[in-house]
Design goal:
The complex is a heterodimer of chains A (about 160) and B (about 375). In chain A, about 65% of the residues lie in helices and about 0% in strands. With about 160 residues, chain A is mainly alpha-helical. Chain A has a single domain (about 30-155), classed as Serine Threonine Protein Phosphatase 5, Tetratricopeptide repeat, CATH 1.25.40.190. Chain A starts with about 35 loop residues before the first helix and ends in a 5-residue tail after the last helix. Chain B has a single domain, classed as Methylamine Dehydrogenase, Chain H (7 Propeller), CATH 2.130.10.10. In chain B, about 5% of the residues lie in helices and about 45% in strands. Chain B is globular and about 65 Å long. The chains are: A mainly alpha (about 160), B mainly beta (about 375). Chain B: Functions as component of the Arp2/3 complex which is involved in regulation of actin polymerization and together with an activating nucleation-promoting factor (NPF) mediates the formation of branched actin networks.
């Protein structure tokens, strides 16, 4: 049976009512520049070197470049990865990770899950897969399944 | 009184939607391309319903079913782009075709509370408001189009039968006027607006994630609207009049799997359910909403179940074998399935709850992918 009719573009006659990619992204988010993200990453590194891990984590998770160049997003994602590694290296017990997560608010926990997934997709993240999975396990233990559902559905990608 | 007055296992095919007649004597469920009509024993709900008719004029999956407020007409719509109105005449159900004029599947249909009209949502970016035209003896429709640009997943009528709320896959919840001249009398002003010619957009709300909207429902007094979305959140809006910002818009993030359907028990209580297979009750008002309780006890899906050491040679069922493969895939190790685990979920519904409806005061009925229709006390 010929199934070519499945490929007919039945929307061709109504070009106006098509949804564009831009329409699916909320408009009320300001754009983040590379400069801003680099400044934040410097601030985070100084927190990390002085042992203020929670502050570093919160600063990273509060400043998400949702609307930004791909390169800027990458930089921030790497910065978050550094924080996660640094916390893990300085806290040998798994239960310590949990305390860091408990002290985050709902929004920050959601963002953390997004960055865990994002880092799992990178080469450097995959080399530290165990570390990311430990963070992931502890986060889901604290939060439940909600942040995963929001990672999957949120049109604001990190 | 028990917590669950009735559990009906009606085959094992998914039930996308179900509806009881207003006197609760008839139950209609969708099943693939058909709609099955069952007779319910009103004095003893727990008795098995009796199949009295099968409606099979649709030639694609039936997506929604609704019974008119007077109980005389059954409305169905399907992916075959049609809606049918069924009436019981001379011992059988006879369909009347509705002129929907849509080019893609119909996704959802609902009678207005006064029974004069109904609305059909579609993936053609259109909601058809349908009404009966006496001189031609058929149902005709007017289209709500702008500014809809995506599939309508859910609709609900305001108690005044004029306003219609809808949710769509672009994450928007919108409230339209479905006022039809000659059918409706002039509506009284509401918090949603004063002047309401057809197609007036009275509200347009989004969640910050812009995830798919699965369910919308007006509160019993009509002054608030609740919705559920695929980001596991529940939204509420309390408008205060035309041209004014709403009194409050709330977005309550939950840590359950996403909810599909929502109903109000009263103006400060809702029940939601969906992919978590359980019903959850939330209470609140315009300042804030909070989870009250879960209707059924449920084990936490994120916690590992402790495994018991069973005999090595024990025979395992195909379901258990599948679970073992899944575990091996997910965790790289196998927990020997115990008898306890193989019994499935602790909740009555063993799969996603697709629709929830009000049954009686403080009772709701649910239907799901597992082919069950259940009545719960809330």
């Amino acid at each position: 049976m010929n199934s070519d009719w499945r490929k007919i573009d039945i929307d061709a006659l109504e070009p106006d009512s098509h949804l564009t990619k831009e329409e699916l992204i909320p408009t009320n988010i300001p754009e983040t520049t590379k400069q801003q993200i680099i400044e934040i990453s410097q601030q985070i590194r100084s927190y990390l070197s002085s042992g203020q891990f929670q502050n570093a984590l919160i600063l990273g998770l509060d400043n998400v470049p949702y609307i930004a160049e791909e390169e800027t997003k990458e930089i921030h994602s790497k910065t978050i990865f550094e924080i996660l590694c640094s916390i893990k290296n300085n806290n040998s017990k798994l239960s310590d990770l949990k305390n860091f997560i408990i002290d985050l608010n709902d929004e920050q926990q959601d963002v953390l899950i997004k960055y865990l997934y994002k880092n799992m997709s990178t080469d450097y993240g995959q080399k530290q897969g165990g570390l990311l999975l430990q963070w992931f396990e502890k986060t889901v233990e604290v939060t439940g399944l909600g942040p995963i559902a929001r990672y999957l559905t949120d049109r604001r990608t990190v | 009184m028990t917590k669950v007055p009735a559990v009906y296992q009606l085959g094992h095919l998914p039930i996308k939607d179900h509806c009881f007649s207003p006197d609760r004597s008839i139950l209609a469920i969708t099943k693939e391309n058909m709609v099955e009509i069952y007779k319910i024993n009103q004095s003893n709900l727990s008795l098995k319903p009796q199949l009295i008719a099968t409606l099979n004029d649709h030639d694609k999956t039936v997506t929604s079913v609704d019974i008119s407020p007077d109980g005389s007409k059954i409305l169905t719509c399907s992916q075959d782009r049609n809606a049918l109105v069924w009436e019981f005449k001379n011992g059988e159900y006879k369909p009347t075709l509705v002129l929907l004029r849509i080019h893609r599947g119909a996704t959802v249909c609902k009678w207005s509370p006064d029974g004069q009209k109904f609305a059909v949502g579609s993936s053609d970016r259109i909601i058809a408001i349908c009404y009966y035209e006496e001189e031609n003896d058929w149902w005709v429709s007017k289209h709500l189009k702008k500014p809809i640009k995506s599939t309508i997943t859910t609709i609900d009528w305001h108690p005044n039968s004029i306003l219609l709320a809808c949710g769509s896959t672009d994450g928007h919840v919108r409230v339209f006027s479905g006022y039809i001249k000659g059918i409706d009398s002039k509506p009284d002003p509401t918090v949603w607006g004063t002047k309401l010619p057809f197609q007036t957009l009275c509200g347009d709300f989004i969640n910050e994630t812009q995830a798919w909207i699965h369910g919308v429902k007006f509160s019993p007094n009509g002054d608030a609207l609740a919705w559920t979305a695929h980001d596991s959140s529940i939204g509420f809006v309390y408008p205060q009049g035309e041209g004014l910002e709403p009194k409050s818009i709330l977005n309550l993030k939950t840590n359950y799997l996403p909810f599909i359907s929502v109903v109000w028990i009263n103006d400060s209580t809702i029940v939601v359910g969906g992919f978590n297979c359980n019903l959850v009750v939330f209470k609140g008002k315009e300042s804030s909403w909070k989870e009250a309780y879960q209707i059924e006890e449920q084990k936490d899906l994120t916690k590992e179940t402790p495994h018991t050491n069973d005999d090595e040679d024990q025979e395992i069922s195909s379901h258990q074998a599948l679970n073992m493969f899944k575990q091996l895939d997910l965790k790289g190790r196998v927990n020997k399935p115990s008898q306890k685990q193989s019994k499935g979920l602790k909740t009555i519904h063993q799969n996603t709850i697709n629709s929830i409806r009000n049954f009686k005061n403080n009772q709701v009925s649910t239907s799901g992918i597992d082919g069950k229709v259940v009545i719960f006390n809330v």
